[in-house]
Every structure is written in C-alpha cells, then in structure tokens.
Amino acid sequence: MACLERASPALKEILLKLYRANKSIEIDHHLYEFGSVEYHIQSSASDEHHMYLSISTPLLSQEVLLPYGISHHTKQMITAICSDVVEIIEPAKEGYQLTLRLDFSKLPSGKDTLKVIAEISAVQAIILSSRLKEMLMNVDSHDTFQGMYKPIKLVYRPSEPFFIVRQPQKFIAVFPIHFKDKPDVIIATTFFQELMDVGSSEKWAKAPPCCWSPIPPPELRGELFEDLSTTGGFVSFEISSWHVKGKKLDKTVWSLLNFYAYVKFHVKSTRSFIQRRMRKRLEGLVELLHKRNIKEVEVEEEEEEQSRKIQGCKCMIRISNLPKPTVLKRRYNAFSRTIKRIRSRIKIQGFGRFRRRWLKMPKFSSSMGYTKLE
Amino acid sequence: MVGANTLRLYLTCIRNTLDAAMCLQNFPCQEVERHNKPEVELKTSPELLLNPVLICRNEAEKCLIETSINSLRISLKVKQADELENILTKKFLRFLSMRAEAFQVLRRKPVQGYDISFLITNYHCEEMQKHKLIDFIVQFMEDIDKEISELKMSVNTRGRLVATEFLKQFI
C-alpha cells in the first residue's frame, strides 16, 4: 500500500536478521501487509549466500497490463538499488509479480549495508510509484494531442481512484475525496481550504498550486458517474516540470500517492484531538461545579470557627482596652474574694452579716478623700 | 464590543429569571402514591406548572426556562455560525450529555429543538447552594461558547500546520 513509510518494517527486520546471522538459517516466511501486499521470503541452509524474495502487490493503473505486470523501467529501478546484490528472476514465482534473488555476501560494508537493506525493503513502493514516475517524467514532452487530453485513471483501491490529466507543460492530479461520516467531511474540507490558503501565499509559490471544489473539475468531464460522486469534493494539484526535476520526482510521486493516506491520518488525529480536549474540559467543568459547593461549605465552617474564637476572647479584648489603675483594682478585688472564700469555708447562717459588721478591715482615710462633717 | 454587551445582557437576564424561578419545594406525585417525580417533566398537572420563559439573544441563541413546583428545566440553544461549529457543538454537548451523572443537574437528552438541557429538582437545591447553582449554569454557558471557539481555532491551526508540512515535500 502507498503508506507513509516506504520500507516494510517486518521485511526489513527479517532481512537484517538474516544478514546478521553467523550461519545460514532455514526460512520460509509469508508476510501480509495492509493493502493486499504479500511477501514470500525463502532461505535454505544449503544455499548460504542466496535468498529469494517474491512480491505480490496490486498495480496502480488498470490501463497497461503487461505479461508479468512489471514494466521494463520498473525492473531497471529495482536493479539499480544494488546490481551486485539484487537479481530479478524470470519468470516470477507463481502468484507473485516479482521474484528477486538476494546475495548478502556482496553487500557493501558499513552504513551502506543498512541503506541497501532499507531500499530492498521498499521494493513494493518502487513498483507502485514507477508507473506514475514514467508518466510525470514526460511532462515537458511535446507530443501533441488535438483537443482535450484524456484523463488517466489510476486505481490502487477500488474506493480511492485518482486521475492524472496531461496538459501542455504540466500535469493535473485530481483526487475525488469520499468520507462516510459528515464530521470527517467537514474536517477534511477545512483542511483543504487551509491547503489552498497556504499554497496561494508567496512563501509557497514553488509548491504545486492546489485547488478544492465541491463539484468535478472540467478536466473530468465524461468520466463515469460512480467516479465523480463524492462527499468531500475534488482536490487538484498542478504538477509542472520544476516539481519533477532530479530527486524531486521521487518526492513528488510519493506525496501524490500518499495524499489519501495523509488526509485520512489528519482527519483521524483531529478527531482524537477533539476527544482529548472535550475530556479535559469535562473534568474542568465537573471540578468547577463541585468546587463551588465544597468551597461554600468550607467557608461556612471557617466562619463558625472564627465566631467561636471571638466569643472566647471577648473578655480579654475588653480588659485590654481599660486603663491600668482600673485593671489593678479589679485584680485586687478578685484576689480578696478568693482569699475570703478560702478563709470562710464553713458557711454559717447569718454569719455573713456579722462578719460584714464586726470583722471588716478598717478604712483609713486618705488626705485625698472627703470626710463629711455631721 | 456590541457582541460582548449583548452577551452580558443575555446572561444577566437568564440569571435574574433563574433566581426568581428557582424556588422549589418537595411535592409528592399526585398521580402515583408514594412517588416523587419532577413535575416539569411529567406535565400532567397544569396547576403545578408555571409559565415557561423563553429568552432569545438572537435567532440562533435562546434559552427556555420551564418551572414547576418541585423542578426546573433549562434548555439552551448554542450559536453555530458554520458547519465546523455545528459539528463541534454537537459532538461536545453530546459528549457532556452522555456523562450527565458527573454533573447531577444535566439532562441526558436535550429537549427537542435545543442543544443541551438541565434538570434541577428540589433535592438539588437542598444539597447545593441556589445562587451557586445559578452561577454554575451561567458560567457553563460562557465556557461552552469559549470552548467551541477555541476548538474551532485549534482545528484550523492544525489544518494549516499539516498543509504546510505536506507542501514542504514538494520543495
């Protein structure tokens, strides 16, 4: 499948394991990957140096059907990975489009080893992108067709075809977008509008101009109704010769092949982002509700405690506000009452009056005091 | 500025109406013995229901307050300017409604024609402070608007970043 990573991780791991093994291992693995891709890896103990890798993958275009399904140009690209190591076996094994014989004894040493193994693991991507590369390489070709150029339909999955329309000095890649859920359609549409906005800015003048429309573009007039009925509209990219020069050809082709996967991944991540955000907000709102009610109870409890404290301290506050002589007098009176209480422990009826008249302390008149004259 | 003013007026009006309407008391069900049901939901006894109040900020935003002797129902319609806000609002409010037990006063299903509904009974008023409940509802309304706007901005920003990254591959 035209997924975002070129090299198959499982295939890479097996190839590395075989390369690092000191002795030859007997292996017969079938690997199945998303997008109807199948690998068959065979290695026998008797043949130390060689192993066989067979690949079956759906081809991109339905138009050109070759006897072996792989074009000559594709075979050249595969052999160019490392001609010493990779050899194409013809005919390919039954049920597979391509069989390779790999000779690990001829692998270059050092960092290049990993690079070659990674490129071998990405052979499916090479097969898939070769058809589109062949078409885009001829963007500057001057074969003239009178009138309109017929769109070429490239199909990897039945539900995700896209069209390449050849025009003078450029190609237009048109992607009909289809989503089942309405929220997905809206998120994708928002993305396409941002794509148009960003692409039309001066900073991104070198990027291929992008256009989104809810109706089929005029280039697709005459195509089947099933191909033109979509929920998410149509996205078009104009590919000019600048975008396919040198190393950019590979990047451009890979980006176009991965466009559907890219959009779907973005929609999925946005949905999970919205879900995370909502969950966080929910926690905040629930906390707000409970906090309001708990906080009020706590404040009430605090107020009650404070009022109790204030009542206990009332007399202390009042005494501290009085002048010093008054304070001393009060203390003396309290002290004398205590002494009297201690002395007169036995209570006799009527004794109190006797005590007050005959047993009280004499008062000495002071010079400051006033004595009334009779 | 004008929008902020109208929002303030709208929220103040809702607050004052809730303050007047949230005078709930326990009232056993007249239809079924030993049952106690929120009369605003049943609507079987007209003498127990007060006149519903509809407060509209504009055509898109409104609040319906229905009161009865022992319960109060508040239904809100949130503004949705475009399709993106529409799906975000629907998603978010549905998310909250499905977790209504966490809020206690939230209704699991909004009243028809509205986006979200609250059901407050006399028991809620006994457990919680009345003025704090009203504060919560008003704050909730403000937070929903704010959250939807922030979500929309985040989705647009993410789209822009992803678009930038995609176009970088061609350069």
TrEMBL record, chain A:
One of its GO terms (molecular function) is structural constituent of cytoskeleton. SUPFAM superfamilies: Arp2/3 complex subunits. One of its GO terms (biological process) is Arp2/3 complex-mediated actin nucleation. Its main location: cytoplasm. It is found in: Cytoplasm, Cytoskeleton. Keywords: Actin-binding, Cytoplasm, Cytoskeleton. Component of the Arp2/3 complex. Functions as actin-binding component of the Arp2/3 complex which is involved in regulation of actin polymerization and together with an activating nucleation-promoting factor (NPF) mediates the formation of branched actin networks. PANTHER family: ACTIN-RELATED PROTEIN 2_3 COMPLEX SUBUNIT 2B, ARP2/3 COMPLEX 34 KDA SUBUNIT. Belongs to the ARPC2 family. This is Arp2/3 complex 34 kDa subunit.
UniProtKB/TrEMBL annotation, chain B:
GO terms for molecular function: actin filament binding. Its main location: cytoplasm. InterPro entries: ARPC2/4 (IPR034666), ARPC4 (IPR008384). SUPFAM superfamilies: Arp2/3 complex subunits (SSF69645). GO terms for biological process: actin filament polymerization; Arp2/3 complex-mediated actin nucleation. GO terms for cellular component: Arp2/3 protein complex. It comes from the Eukaryota. Keywords: Actin-binding, Cytoplasm, Cytoskeleton. It is found in: Cytoplasm, Cytoskeleton. Belongs to the ARPC4 family. PANTHER family: ACTIN-RELATED PROTEIN 2_3 COMPLEX SUBUNIT 4 (PTHR22629:SF0), ARP2/3 COMPLEX 20 KD SUBUNIT (PTHR22629). Functions as actin-binding component of the Arp2/3 complex which is involved in regulation of actin polymerization and together with an activating nucleation-promoting factor (NPF) mediates the formation of branched actin networks. Seems to contact the mother actin filament. This is Actin-related protein 2/3 complex subunit 4. It comes from Rubus argutus. The lineage of its organism: Eukaryota, Viridiplantae, Streptophyta, Embryophyta, Tracheophyta.
